[in-house]
Write a structure and sequence with these properties.
Order of helices and strands: HHEEHEHHEEEEHHHHEEEEH
Strand order of the largest sheet: 3-2-4-7-6-8
CATH topology of one domain: Spore Coat Polysaccharide Biosynthesis Protein SpsA, Chain A
Number of strands: 11
Shape: globular
CATH architecture of one domain: Alpha-Beta Complex
Distance between the termini: 75 Å
Radius of gyration: 24 Å
CATH superfamily of one domain: Spore Coat Polysaccharide Biosynthesis Protein SpsA, Chain A
Structural class: alpha/beta
Helix content: 25-40%
Largest sheet: 6 strands, mixed
Number of helices: 10
Length: 368
Amino acid sequence: MKTHRRRNRQQLLLFLLIFVAVLFFEEYNYGKIDIFMNNHYKNAVYLPIERERTGDIKLPVAVVVIVDQASRFNEYKLAQDSLSCYCQHYSYPIIRLSLDQEPDLVAKCPQRDFMFQRHCVVREMLLRNPRHRYFYFLDADIGVVNPNHLLEDYINIDADVTFYERIFNFEFMAGSYIVRNTPFAQILLKQWAEYENKLPKSFHGTDNAAIHQLFLNRFKPKKATACRSIWEASEDWEGVWKYVACARFHLGTNYTRFFPIDIRQKGSELTWVRDGWLTNSRWASRDFMFHGWQAARLDTKKFARWFNPFVPSDSETGFQLNRCSSKLSMLNWAYKDTFISTDEKINEIIRKEIEKVKREFEKYTGNL
């Protein structure tokens, strides 16, 4: 009898060990339980769109989205549908370009690296559309999570170019900026695109890092060589961040006072986009657009994974573009109730991330 009980306990223990091992393997590699829990919601929430774009608020502003191949738009379907609906609702012109279908633009912008080529294309859009005074350039994976904001809310009418600092690292964002249609902005975009030919023969981080060197050369030329030597020694993203930390350290915060450039600081509510994955795709009224809505990272274990904050729908993304101009537009933004947070909670998460990045920045710049 005792032997039988001992055998039963051993079998139960073996079963539990196997179960835990299988569960650990599944969660470590696939995380289906974690993904299920993160997508859990009870109700769909529909919030009214209360903003109006009329009178003195209204500025001649357009949106530009560029991809290298038309098929890429399939990877960013939710982002692009939400953006289309938003622009249709508020009557913002949107210029959406696939360079494989634009031979004339490719001839004007022959850069080999699409990341640089797109800034040349933005410049071409400025030249070809003089009626638009301001342009928002947006990465194709940027979507509108909260339509209760206007593009005009974030425009500094005294700045020709407006960037924002990313929260989780040291750079200012290359994938979205606001430009005023001026000669200064056109020249800056041209210089940025042409920097493809001045890159170091290292792991350089393409246009994200290049804009910092362009700024160093222009605003702090005496410090440009020291930082570039770090850039030239870069072997991976760690090396890029060391370089960017050097550039931001020497650029400081006051260099833009002599030039029509605005850089929004980390966590500023004057920033129109942030990486939604930083708050596990939760959002609050402070938020406007989310960056990172790529199909390849949806419900995965990858870096910058994200979850869809909207409830499932019969349509592929839930956005029915034929109702975006009407009062029914709000029905397109059908939120999972568990994804709606408060400004206080979102700001606290962002504050902690900023503090962590500040410590990393101090580590990289301690000997500069």
